[in-house]
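Our working data are protein records whose layout never changes between entries. An example says more than a description, so a record of this kind follows.
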Amino acid sequence: MQDRLRICIIAFMFAPFVGGAEVRAEKLARQLMAQGHKVTIVTLRHEKHWLRTETLDGLPIVRVGGLYSRQGILRIGRLGHLPIDLLMFLTLWRLRHRFDVLHSLQLSPLAAVATLVGKWAKKPVVISIPSTGPGKKQQTEDATLMADTLTQTDFLKVAFKDIVVGDIAYLSKSAFGGNAIVKFLRTSEAFYQVLSSRSYPYMIANGFQRAKLVLIPNGVDATKFQPAPELRPDPAQPERAILCVSRLQYPKGIDVLLHAWGRMMHAPAEWRSHLQPKLLIAGEGPLQAQLERIARELSIQDSVEFLGLQRNVIPLLQRVWGFVLPSRWEGMPNALLEAMAVGLPCVATRVSGSEDIVNNGVNGLLVEPEQAEELAQALRRIIEDTDFAQQLSREARATILRDYQLNRIVEQCVALYRSVLGREVELPTMEREEVSK
C-alpha cells in the first residue's frame, strides 16, 4: 500500500443530522479509513449542547460553534457565518499539523476559510460542488408549488429560505460578502470536485479555471445496498409500492410527484383493476404540511403515505416495487444510486446527476422535470409492465456495479489527493477524459 494520507473533511452538516450531504460525508470518511487513511471530520456544532469533540465508531469529529439563540441553536445567516468562520479558521489552523489535505464538501464560507488556511499552511484544498441549481427557465424567486388541477392555490407559496439553489448562487445570496467569497475561491489555488457532467460547464460559465476541475461522482456501497430477492414483492400479487426517499423541499419536486400520482390514479381504472399502487414518501422537511394538503386536495390520500424521516432506508428499498425521484434539480443524488444498487426499476427527472446515471429505457426511465403527465406515464409503465420493470431492475444493479461502487469512487478521490499533493504528476486519467466531454 502507498503511504497513508491524512485528510481533513469539512462538512457544513454531519451526524446526528440525516440527509444526502451528511451521508456522503460519512461514506467518504469511512471508506477512506477502510483503505488505511487517517480522517478527521470538522463540522459545525449546530446545537449548543452537542459535544465539541467526539469519536463516532473510530471517526474523530471536531465541531465548531459560533453565536447561539436563546434556544441553543447556532445562528447561521448572512452575518451569522462571520463568527463561525473565525472559529473555523482558528480550529483548522490549530489542527494544521494533523492533515495533509483539506476537503470541503460544500462551496460555502467554510470552503473559503479552508482555502485561506491551506494557502498559509501550504496544504492543498479540494472543494466539492454538489449542486448546479435550477436551469435558466426554472423559477426560484416567488416560487410556488405546482397547482396543476387545483382550484385552491393560496397555500402553495414557498419561502426563498426553503429553496436550495445552485452552490454559487446560494453562496452569493446567503452570506455577507458572498460575491467576494466566490471571487476569492474562483482565483484561488483550490481544486474542485464536480459530481456530474452538468456541473463542469456550470463552473466554467461562472469563471472557474478549467484545469482545476475534476469529475468524480458520488458512489454507493453495493455490498450494503443490494437486492434481497426473498423480500421483493411477488409479481403475481397486486401490491405495487413505489418509494420516494427525499427531503421535503422545493427542489425535490414532491409536489409534482403528487400531481403525477393523482393523474395516474384518476385515469380510467381498467389498467389497474388487478393492481394496488401505493406511493410511499420517506423524508421530512419544511413543505410537509403543504404536500399533505396537496394529497388531500387531489383525493389521493388513501394511496399516498408520508413515512417521515427514515434513518435506515435499506429495508424499505428491498421491499418495494419501484423508486421515483421527481427532482426539479439535483447534484448527484445518493437516493437514486442507492435505489439502483438495490435493483429497483427507477423513474427520475432529466437533471444534473440523474441524467448521468440513468440511460433512459435501459436501466431506468427519465422524464423532464415539472412534467406531471410525463411522470405519470412513466410510473404507470413500471407499475403495470412487470417484464419491463424487471429488465430495468437488472440493468440498474449492473450500472452501479460497473460505474458507481463506493470503493472505486473513493480511490479516485485518493488519486486526486495524491495529485494535488504532488505525489503524482497528472490527475487521474479517467477524470480528465470525463471532464473534457
Observations:
- Residues 428-437 have pLDDT under 50 and may be disordered.
- The first strand starts at residue 6 and ends at 11.
- The CA atoms of residues 146 and 255 lie 6 Å apart.
- The chain has 15 helices and 14 strands.
